[in-house]
Prior knowledge:
By secondary structure, this protein is α+β, with helices and mostly antiparallel strands. The protein is built from six helices and four strands. It has a four-stranded mixed sheet, covered by helices on one side. Helix 2 (59-73) packs antiparallel against helix 3, helix 2 runs antiparallel to helix 5 and helix 4 packs antiparallel against helix 5. The model is unreliable at 8-37 (pLDDT under 50).
Amino acid sequence: MKTTMIMLFLALLSWGASAQHDHSSMGNSGNSHSSMTPKMKEEPRVIPSITVKHSLLVTSILDNYLALKDALVDGNGKKAASSGKLLFDALGKFDISSQATTKQKELKDIIDDAKENAEHISENADKIAHQREHFELLGGDLKDLIVIAGADRTLYQLFCPMYNNSKGGKWLSASDKVRNPFYGDEKMKCGRVLVEIKVK
């Protein structure tokens, strides 16, 4: 009987040590998992970048585009219309002849598209949803413009996946902080930086 009790006691001791060992190894794997988690979170912060030449030709275009963006962030259709008109005028003053001959036709097409979108925005002060549709198209026009003609400041292209029935929408900003022009207060933080546009 004494031998049985000793054997039982030793078996329990062995099981307890084994369980403790398993628990501590689980703790270790938990620690290693948590130490990996920050690395996984850091990966999306690596933002791809493109570099464009420095140019002052687009300064007034970008100033008015960014003012338009801010008006839409604030949900102010009248201010957006006013900024759209100023942007339309600035686009009309862009000197295409200063660019390489091989790029002039492409630039003319980009400018014409951008002017059409700016005009729609300027004429629809009471239809902010319509303004936002044209603003989304305008962002693509301006990115194409600065890739060819250059820019005078660092810009960011941001993307909101929820816009346009989850097809998504892009816009340009002078900041990498998300302030959504498609939704304003409704979904101010919807978005992420797609590309940083640097000036050399």
